[in-house]
User: Fold Xanthine-guanine phosphoribosyltransferase from Dongia soli.
Amino acid sequence: MSVSQQKHFPVSWEELHRTAKALAWRLIGIGEWKGIIAITRGGLVPAAIIARELDIRLIDTVCMASYSDDHRPGEINLLKGVGGDGDGWLIIDDLVDTGRTAKYVREMLPKAHFATIYAKPAGRPLVDTFITEVSQDTWIYFPWDIEPQFVQPIAKMKRS
Ligand SMILES: O=P(O)(O)OC[C@H]1O[C@H](OP(=O)(O)OP(=O)(O)O)[C@H](O)[C@@H]1O
Ligand SMILES: O=c1[nH]c(=O)c2nc[nH]c2[nH]1
Ligand SMILES: [Mg+2]
Assistant:
């Protein structure tokens, strides 16, 4: 799917904060965690919010990259993993899309609890806990990737 065929779902800092706190409420009802494993880079900000809410100070990272600038998934590139099987650990990422990242991380840490803020249908079965589902043809724009700018009124956009 090309970038222009996708629906856009821009997320503000306030919305991200509120939804990450909703995830924290969900997670505190599930159990105690040894610590958080943030999936870089998208999981870093949500992990910081969750860590603050759940009073967790032990935070590790799985460092990886897969998407290119044109929103197409590429080869998964693992830069840093973590040891063990993930037992008692909470994995935080911003979203699951195709589920490829989640599948890769779950194979590495099969006993960890995998949580995201957003989930698209293809990735949803791979997440233990998430808050908001968006359709598969939607691209989520996180606050760290966007800035406010002028947009045409809807009526004008429809005419062009
Ligand atoms: O379910 P998937 O299709 O695997 O997509 C989800 C992953 O893609 C994004 O990360 P990306 O690799 O783009 O890097 P980033 O976190 O640095 O933005 C996002 O943060 C998830 O980690
Ligand atoms: O910022 C992002 N928004 C998305 O919808 C997405 N899907 C995979 N990777 C993504 N990154
Ligand atoms: Mg990521």
